[in-house]
Amino acid sequence: MATRRQFLKRCCALGAVGAGLQINRFGMMTARAQAASDYRALVCVFLFGGNDSNNVVVPLSTTGYAAYQTMRQNIALASTSLLPIAAGGGAVPYGLHPRLTNLQRIYNMDKHAALVFNVGMLVKPTTRTTYRQSQVALPKNLYSHSDQTSQWQTSNPTGGSTGWGGRVTDILSAQNAGSFPAGVSTNGNSLLLSGQTTRAVSLSPGDNFGLDTFGDSRASNAREAALQQILTFDTGVTMIAAGNGILGNALKASQEVNAALNGAAALTTVFPNSGIGQQLQQIAKVIQVRGALGMNRQIFFCGMGGFDTHTNILPDQDNLLSQLDPALGAFYAATTELGVDKSVVTFTESEFGRTGQPSTGAGSDHAWGSHHMVMGGPVKGGEAYGTFPTLALQGPDDTDNRGVWIPTTSLDQYAATFASWFGVNDADLNVVFPNLMNFSTPKLGFLA
Fold first, then answer.
1. In Å, how far are 118, 120, 388, 443 from 406, measured between CA atoms?
2. What CATH number does the domain located at 40-207+267-438 have?
3. pLDDT, tens digit, for every residue of 419-443?
């Protein structure tokens, strides 16, 4: 038998599961889309802390690697350790971090992975001259973890209360037949999934998403009935009523997903027993029961921390990527097992890149533009998109003198490419991404 304290703890945990269920506070957006017959899912893998992509993808031409080695000094990776890939129609050689063996295979052999170079939060196109002479508007607090994490999830250079993924699901809500949330996080509450009218849910990997039994089903049912009665009691207090609505919606979502998962066969794909591995496994399970949940469009959020590598970047990033790559490889295999590999696109985000110049502790410091990975059947892979920065301190892509790359691709362009593939029409892209109109190429073309 559970104690009263344990019961309350479980109820509070369930409330946290539903904390991502959003309350309509900001008005409504028009859902213009018709019901879809095809399934599509986006999976965001957020690398918290600011991933140092300078050591994720490295130029392997003679002059390119020499510039990299000169700039990175004691934190440069040996050219012989890098995993060869090519871009520019196979003409330009690059090397991936030695831990990214799955990504290399999916890039080189399957042609279902791509790189997007030097992406960052921008208000409008920015150069070294316009940056240094303050001739262009800049995102707020460029090198702040909290601000840039928010901006990457909202696509708002000053922060915001709704995420770009949430605004996408606002527009496409009519394409889902079920009441289960279109946005699902396995990494706590996600601003990316917060919409104006649609709600998201946060699921903890491996948990039972409902009230646990207490040794006697009659007692459990009685407790749940009592909780439901409490949730529907009119207190007359707006905040309590809103909280009750969140917990009530969480109960409903938990019941839906539990019923669907209980009827599903076990996945044969083996996922690594890491945090990111278990998160992606949970996402695969929810995708597996998409039909039972009535879902045609879903956006998922997961993530891992530890990428704030001011010191000891070589061993620390090696450890991080040795967790990330097997998890991505397993998830890609699971989408193939489920027959949805042509319907699921996985991509990375991180609040910023890191300096090309090392820090004093054999690490690197907060910077701006960063390279990102995209994976899935719809990806026009075996290729890189965007412009690789000139690896030169005080060079044309450096804000100052430490290798802080000014992005040549905006987050709006990167994210709008996903949103367009997902089903958002061109006119609505400007609703989701208000600064997209400042860029001459709104979509990058890496999705079929």
1. 8, 8, 11, 19
2. 3.40.720
3. 999 999 999 999 999 999 999 999 9
